[in-house]
Amino acid sequence: MINLTDKNFNDTVLHKIKEDKILPKPKWQFFLKNFIIWSLGIFSLILGAISTSLVFYMVTGEDTGVGRGGPNILEALLFVIPFFWIICLIIFALSVYFYIKHTKKGYKYSTRKIILIIIGGSLILGALVNLLGVDRFIDDTLGERAPFYDRVINPQLNYWSNPDSGRLTGMIISQVSPLEYNLVDRSGETWVTLLNKDEDSHQKILVGHPVRLIGEKVADHRFLIKEVMSVGPGRGFFKRPLPPLPPKMLPRDCQPGVPGACNLGPIEPIIIHSN
Questions:
Q1: Closest to 231 measured CA to CA, from 76, 72, 55, 58
Q2: Largest pairwise CA distance in the chain
Q3: Which of 151, 196, 256, 262 reaches 20 to 30 Å from 127, CA-CA?
Q4: In terms of DSSP H, where are the helices of the chain?
């Protein structure tokens, strides 16, 4: 055991300090280090809370329709579960753990205590984010602008874009007849969607609104509607610029060369809020 009061030891340390010209660090450097660590930790906790809120928003923000339009529930779950936000949550949680451990008194906190702090903080702040509607705003913004949104961030759109399996989603851009609508899907393809004489479903289809449809593909780009569902997570994706509608898909009085006023009017995307 080293005796810290031993004169030879003290002389050796002093000699080493003078030889290597070791100088004590000023207090402001320690303060700056702790400030940066705490700031990054709090920032990571906030991002984790946002990720937590978005996980719940993706799962509960709208009827996911798992199992509808196809019997493979496992496939549906893999598309519906928001793995992107779950991974983000894990990354931010690990970042918070790292920063807490590197604070001045971080060594005093056990791993269990830190995990409880992270979980509690994420849930409380996540609930606040949801209450303020920030999660919806972030999802709408990412849906409108983020690349690969429909394939990476929100796979629900990918799941609902399978007309061969009875699922179709997109923006209703025009009404051809009382029971016939034109829809542009996420790939920019135009579909003629046919509605049975169902008043409830008819009221759910509005020009300028995104919808999810359950039914049957009866021909090339023709879809028979059996059920209509609104779009919650991912609705911002359909605010992206749409391709021009081919003349043959327009109502008769809107086709080139046909006399008469076009009653289609300007189409403006309208956000559908989930219940």
A1: 58
A2: 108
A3: 151
A4: 7-20, 27-60, 73-80, 83-101, 111-132, 134-145, 156-159, 199-204
Q: Which two tokens stand for residue 208?
A: 């300028």
Cα Rg, the chain, nearest whole Å: 29
- Considering only CA atoms, which of 165, 197, 158, 167 is closest in space to residue 180? 197
Domain ranges of the chain: 27-132, 163-253
Domain 163-253: give its CATH code.
2.40.50.140
Q: Encode pLDDT of 131-163 as tens digits.
A: 888 999 999 999 999 988 988 898 888 888 889
Which residues are CB-contacts of 210 (< 8 A; sequence separation ≥ 6)? 169, 170, 171, 172, 230, 231, 234, 235, 237, 238, 269, 272
Residues of the chain short of pLDDT 50, as ranges, are: 1-2, 4, 249-275
Beta carbons of 274 and 236 less than 8 angstroms apart: no
The pLDDT tens digits for 3-17 are: 545 556 555 656 555
pTM over 0.90: no
Q: Are 54 and 139 in contact (CB under 8 A)?
A: yes
